[in-house]
Amino acid sequence: MLLSSVRITLKAATLVLASVLAVACGDEHGPGPRSRDRIEFGIWTPEASGELRFEATDEVPYVAEQAFGWRRRAAVPDEPVKWVEQLELPAPPESWEGVAESPNVTVSEDGRKATTFGASLPGDEFIGNVWYVSPGDPLGDYRISIELEDGSQASFRFRLATPKDGRVAATPGEVI
Q1: Average pLDDT estimate for 102-129
Q2: Residue 24 and residue 42: Cα distance in Å, rounded?
Q3: Predicted confidence band at 76 (pLDDT cuts at 50, 70, 90)?
Q4: In the chain, what are the domains?
Q5: Contact predicate 67/7, CB 8 Å
């Protein structure tokens, strides 16, 4: 289940400025010795029950609407936590439609980086941000860096790649 305060539909990616409520924690590197303090990166996949399951991974399948992003268990769930994220792509996407119009996101002149400013919602179990794969997103190596106002930081490298699980890859120009 994704809880969001704002959802901006994009051609290049759909950005949810929100906290993510998900089950199962993967073991990803991040600051702090306790798992609740770790920022982790991965994908969300639907289960038969309709629930979304978080899976820590460094490979994101190039499937339309595949959710990917980061999260950290909220340390102070009653207060919002501000964060800044920078997503760097291997090449500019086909379009940043919807992102450039957001007051919370800036896109670099070369079209390869998006910087997002966000905040958790009070009471959310997780602080995080989710993107969705869209046709026209470039395949290859990505980097995402996160900094929370409490000083916590993490950086992850991941690959957007043709799916290995039998799902059909997104096709540029595909309507989703």
Answers
A1: 92
A2: 11
A3: low
A4: 6-161 (2.60.40.2390)
A5: no
Assess contact for 103 and 140: CB atoms under 8 A.
no
Lookup result for tokens 């991941």? 158
Q: Angle CA(55)–CA(124)–CA(40) in degrees, nearest 5?
A: 30
DSSP three-state, residue 35: helix
Q: Are 20 and 5 in contact (CB under 8 A)?
A: no
pTM exceeding the 0.70 threshold for the entire prediction = yes
Q: What letters, b where the CB count within 10 A reaches 16 and e where it falls short, cover 130-165?
A: bbbbbbbbbeeebebebbbeeebebebebebeebee
pLDDT, position 89: 97
Q: Which of 165, 11, 174, 1 is nearest to 71 (CA)?
A: 1
